[in-house]
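Re: [ENG-882] Designed sequences occasionally contain unexpected residues at chain ends

Forwarding the minimal case from QA. Structure tokens:
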């Protein structure tokens, strides 16, 4: 019986140590992936904010360059939808519950 313990004990210690190292490596990989995801999310949000400010600044500067286009809105030349006039004569299927 003592010989079996002397035979199995070193193998169990090696298997335990290898399993512990594998667990540490897998945990580190997942932590790195989590950190990369968080940094990518923060970068995307910052990029969206910067892009929004650039668009706002560009529209403001374009309005200052061409005040006739942006100073007032012409309701007389606005495009009106034709949905009401086109769909007035078409039959519709109305579900009854």
């Amino acid at each position: 019986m003592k010989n079996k313990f002397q035979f199995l004990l070193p193998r169990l210690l090696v298997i335990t140590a290898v399993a512990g190292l594998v667990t540490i490596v897998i945990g580190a990989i997942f932590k790195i992936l989590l950190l990369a995801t968080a940094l990518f999310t923060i970068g995307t949000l910052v990029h969206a904010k910067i892009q929004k400010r650039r668009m706002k600044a560009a529209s403001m500067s374009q309005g200052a360059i061409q005040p006739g286009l942006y100073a007032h809105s012409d309701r007389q030349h606005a495009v009106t939808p034709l949905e009401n006039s086109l769909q007035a004569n078409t039959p519709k299927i109305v579900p009854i519950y």
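QA comment: On inspection the terminal residues look reasonable. The mean pLDDT is 80. Proposing we downgrade this to a documentation issue.
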